[in-house]
Specification:
Layout: H1 2-10, H2 15-30, H3 35-43, E1 52-54, E2 57-59, E3 63-65, H4 76-80, E4 86-92, E5 105-108, E6 113-116, H5 125-132, E7 140-144, H6 155-166, E8 172-176, H7 191-206, E9 214-218, H8 224-237, E10 241-244, E11 264-267, H9 271-285, E12 291-294, H10 300-309, E13 313-316, H11 318-323, H12 326-340
Parallel strand pairs: 3-4, 3-13, 4-7, 7-8, 8-9, 9-10, 10-12, 12-13
Antiparallel strand pairs: 1-2, 5-6, 6-11
Helix pairs in contact: 6-7, 7-8, 8-9, 9-10, 10-12
Protein name: Dihydroorotate dehydrogenase (quinone)
Subunit structure: Monomer.
Function: Catalyzes the conversion of dihydroorotate to orotate with quinone as electron acceptor.
């Protein structure tokens, strides 16, 4: 129904307007008595064999929603009802910021992809905290970044601010230094600045009575040498793991009219490269740390490939938009089927 009826209608309109419309519609729909139960019954797949213990947390199933969809933690409860095992909110910054000028979100339908240059638009970490205070049973990841106006030499202050604010309300943290849409942000992926930032956060984390897992989200555009640096940095800083991968700046093989728009590319064109990065990190590190695989998952087979390559969990974003909520259940069912073989 989604792909044959709903998606064709939604795809006729501006993608950012559709995103806000969808959020509003889902909020209203879930307020109708009985709807939440019906949706859970239709989409959620409950089976103890789907549970995963990763970096000290218990995930009801290994399929999560990637950061960028629910930037301000406005819809995490409703989205969880669609069958996700965990929801990652953000990227959030200490202060609210509007992001880049519109138009900044582009569908590449011929490529089953999206280009975005949103620029960490969000309402600020304090607003997010107020919404997360109402959470009761959704496993939440908090994806944190820096404000656009904050210079790189002061970036750690922004990450620490959001880390402190969110600490009691998220289950794990993700340090986002790999978005291509904040000027100079990717420079923080260089070995020394990255090691310094992660050490600062991890030192602060270890002072807590119960430290939270900290993960690093990396770009798919890193070289093998840079990926080897990432492995070394993860081991040296003792962070919990890596999310591979963020959006790419590559435009190789695209067909759509908007293919040359500036921003990060996500969707099917990223499938192969994301899996390559996961496999490289897993093999070269000797499976030393967990990896969350994200990038170009548009089918159950795509997800299984990432899990086989070394991912412990997977996340959806663009595939969820193109394929709809049925994809979550299809992946979980495929995982169950593969466990029987």
């Amino acid at each position: 129904m989604y792909k044959s009826l709903i998606r064709p209608i939604l795809f006729k309109y501006d993608p950012e307007k559709v995103h806000h419309f969808t959020f509003s519609a889902l909020k209203k729909m879930f307020k109708i008595p009985g709807i939440s139960g019906i949706i859970k019954q239709r989409w959620k797949l409950k089976d103890p064999r789907l549970e995963r213990e990763v970096f000290g947390l218990t995930f009801k199933n290994p399929v999560g929603l990637a950061a960028g969809f629910d930037k301000d933690a406005k819809l995490y409860k409703e989205l969880s009802s669609l069958g996700f095992g965990f929801i990652e909110v953000g990227t959030v910054t200490p202060k609210a910021q509007p992001g880049n000028e519109k138009k900044r979100l582009f569908r590449l339908k011929e490529d089953s992809a999206i280009i975005n240059r949103m620029g960490f638009n969000n309402q600020g970490v304090e607003q997010m905290v107020e919404r997360l205070k109402k959470n009761t049973n959704v496993l939440i990841g908090g994806n944190i970044g820096k404000n656009k106006v904050t210079p790189n030499e002061s970036a750690a202050d922004d990450y620490i601010y959001s880390f402190d604010a969110l600490f009691d309300y998220v289950d794990y943290f993700v340090v986002n230094v790999s978005s291509p849409n904040t000027p100079n942000l990717r420079e923080l992926q260089d070995k020394e600045p990255l090691k310094r930032l992660l050490n600062i956060l991890q030192n602060k984390n270890e002072l807590k009575a119960k430290p939270k897992p900290i993960l690093l989200k990396i770009a798919p555009d890193l070289t093998e040498e840079q990926l080897l640096d990432i492995i070394e940095i993860v081991k040296e800083t003792h962070i919990a793991g890596v999310i591979a991968t963020n959006t790419t700046i590559s435009r190789e093989g695209l067909k759509s009219a908007d293919k040359n728009e500036m921003g990060g590319l996500s969707g099917k064109p990223l499938t192969k490269r994301s899996t390559e990065v996961i496999r490289f990190l897993s093999e070269k590190s000797g499976k030393a740390f967990p990896i969350i695989g994200v990038g170009g998952i548009h089918s159950a087979e795509d997800a299984l490939e990432k899990l086989e390559a070394g991912a412990s969990l997977v996340q959806l974003y663009t595939g969820f938009i193109y394929e709809g909520p049925a994809l979550i259940k299809q992946i979980n069912q495929a995982i169950l089927n593969s466990s029987k073989n």
